[in-house]
Design brief:
alpha+beta; SH3 type barrels; five-stranded antiparallel beta sheet; 7 strands
Length: about 230
């Protein structure tokens, strides 16, 4: 009898300790910091007012709905929905990972924002064509100046008629090149709005090359014209 009493007391003491420990864990779970979980894909789960029967279904929660975790008890978690409804749901039907449909939606929104932050292709084409048009305008002004100088100049005996005619012919060729470049710029402005970026790159460099040839040709003729003016006058 003396041996049985200490054993019984010890068993009772251990049982009390376990009960206190489990109760503490349940209370701590209910007061745990809030976290966010989501209803798993392709599910509709019940939000219950309590775990034990009888319980009342507070709401039906669909897939991907965010749930703010208020506490946890065993296989259930205490949650708050987006519209502030509070209740219990089975933990196995929720996940901490962002649902696939929400990931896709977020990616689509990011792509849309990137498209809005960058100018459309038509705007880029317009800006490039305007830049080329300025170069062509400068070349045109130089051609007009040279043409007027040619019209008022009187060839002297130092310049042969053949040389004079050659210079005049070169100026005429330059005018034709300018007109063709302007037509090409206008045509490319229309077609490039529906063409790919690679195709636009080829056309851009083609027009840029024509503009470079024009400017280079004019720069080469300016010193020659100055020499002619000294001879003519």
């Amino acid at each position: 009898m003396e041996l049985r009493m200490p054993s019984a007391c010890l068993s009772l003491f251990i049982t009390l300790l376990l009960s206190i420990s489990l109760s503490s864990q349940a209370i701590a779970a209910d007061n745990s910091p809030q976290s966010l979980r989501y209803v798993s894909d392709f599910l509709v789960i019940n939000l219950k007012n309590r775990i034990e029967r009888p319980y009342t279904v507070v709401d039906h929660i669909k897939s991907n709905a965010p749930l703010t975790v208020l506490g946890e008890r065993g296989k259930y978690i205490h949650v708050r929905t987006a519209d502030d409804k509070v209740g219990w749901v089975a933990k196995q039907y929720t996940t901490t990972k962002l649902p696939k449909s929400l990931i896709i939606k977020n990616l689509e929104e990011e792509i849309s924002q990137l498209k809005q932050s960058q100018p459309p292709a038509s705007q880029i084409v317009e800006e490039k064509i305007q830049e080329l048009q300025l170069e062509l305008n400068r070349a045109q002004e130089e051609i007009i100046r040279l043409s007027k100088s040619q019209a008022t100049a009187v060839p002297s005996q130092s310049i042969s008629p053949e040389e004079h005619q050659r210079i005049v012919a070169q100026v005429q060729i330059l005018k034709k090149q300018l007109a063709r470049s302007k037509r090409e710029s206008s045509d490319e402005k229309i077609t490039q709005e529906s063409s790919s970026k690679g195709n636009y790159s080829n056309i851009y460099w083609f027009i840029a090359g024509v503009g470079t040839l024009l400017i280079g040709f004019l720069l080469g003729k300016i010193p020659e014209k100055r020499r002619q003016k000294r001879v003519f006058y």
